[in-house]
Amino acid sequence: MTTTAATALRYMHLRRNFVFFVLDYFAFGVGFGMVGTSSAFIPDFVSQLTSNQSLIGLATGAYYFFWLVPQLFLAQIVNQRMWRKPFLLPAPFVRLTMIGIAVVLVTVDPRNTGLMLIAFLIGYWSFAMGDSLVTLIWGDMLGSSLPNKLRGTLFGIGQFMVAFGAFGMSQFARWAIGGSGLAFPLNYALIFAVAGAFFVCGGLGLALLREEQPAPVSQKSPSMREYGAYLGNVLRTDRDFRRFVRTRLLFDLATMSVPFYTVFATGNLGIPSEVLIADTIILIQIGNALGALSMGVLSRRSGSKAVLLLAGACLALEGAFAFLSYLGLGQPALYVTFFLMGVVSGTIYPSYFDWMITHAPPHARPIYIGLTNTISAVSNLAPILGGTLLQLTARPAFSNLEALLPDFLPISAVMVRVYPVVFLSSLLLASLGWLSALHLAEPRKRLN
């Protein structure tokens, strides 16, 4: 039997599944770009309902908790089932949660901000818990439904489409929230409804997937009693997986300086915020699109390790160009940083998934996905780490003149943030991550 014939038998629904995977990738990516944790929309919306800074931060911070923690426990339940598709059938209904938030905002008295806040938090975190299960099944079926070489192509096409879709939706969101849009809270309800529509479309795509015949199981799935010991054994015995986890943690922590590029641009370089926002959206999306195209080609030819090395190199260059901007190259160098951010966004997370799905044993793929995503929760500390470094290295702006000025002038309270410390720390961590990635095995070679 030829390789082509064997592939046709192994992937009987290849074209159908590829189309619906791309549909979900695009629809979910655009929707999450509007109301996701990395968007400025959610903090802005919550700030309309409360002035409590802790609650504003909790809205997105707790999202990761409700998304990550269930995966480690749900992975074992999923792994004990031969067929995974039934877990995806509720996906469209789970994703209706965002439209539910929009309905609440439309129907509740606009003055009752407390009720709107409670309803939003319940809905937003419920969406996260539902998506934690969908993520496990999505990754597992992606590994069993598409050949290894085709996954990189899917990620590249999907990420390229998301880049332009997100750009269009950002303009829509700017209109909706701006002065020419609807009044509060109808303007925010409209964005939640549109994002929800994208989510549901993606969920329908997942529900229409056809699961391939499961491969014979060569190893029994661990019982719930054995599960903890099994996870520890994976980390002890799978050296390549440990290297991958180490590489990912270094890369993720290297993003510590990302929140401070904008602050540095407006505060130190004097770029007006409205100009900066418009320019960075374009630069990041161009970088995202080019990164997605590069990933599609590179992954198909060389595998996920090559894409990880590309993403790591761009991540290191981010910190380098930000540092050069501080040294005197100014706005042009910082704009290169924003462009590289887009390239990293278009390559690094898809390559994480591609490497892990290819490397994980088919009988334990959901467990590997859940374990990796749970460990990666440490990366949420990256902005806190960057902010702490800035606080520790801050110095008085007029320390040399303090003795010459009157006591009533509070010049000691005027502090200068030493941004090069954070930029160089990001450069160092990304470089260490790149060296770690250099020693990663390419999982496709093991399978050939």
From TrEMBL:
Organism field: Candidatus Thermofonsia Clade 1 bacterium
Compartments it resides in: Cell membrane
Keywords per UniProt: Membrane, Transmembrane, Transmembrane helix
One GO MF term attached to the UniProt entry: transmembrane transporter activity
Membrane topology: Multi-pass membrane protein
Protein name per the record: Major facilitator superfamily (MFS) profile domain-containing protein
Matching Pfam families: MFS_1
PROSITE patterns referenced in this protein's UniProt entry, alphabetically: MFS
Residues of the Major facilitator superfamily (MFS) profile domain: 17-445
Transmembrane segments: 18-42, 54-75, 87-108, 114-138, 150-168, 188-209, 249-271, 277-299, 306-327, 333-355, 367-394, 414-438
Keyword Membrane in record: yes
Superkingdom of this protein's organism: Bacteria
GO cellular component terms listed in the entry, alphabetical order: plasma membrane
Major location (coarse): membrane
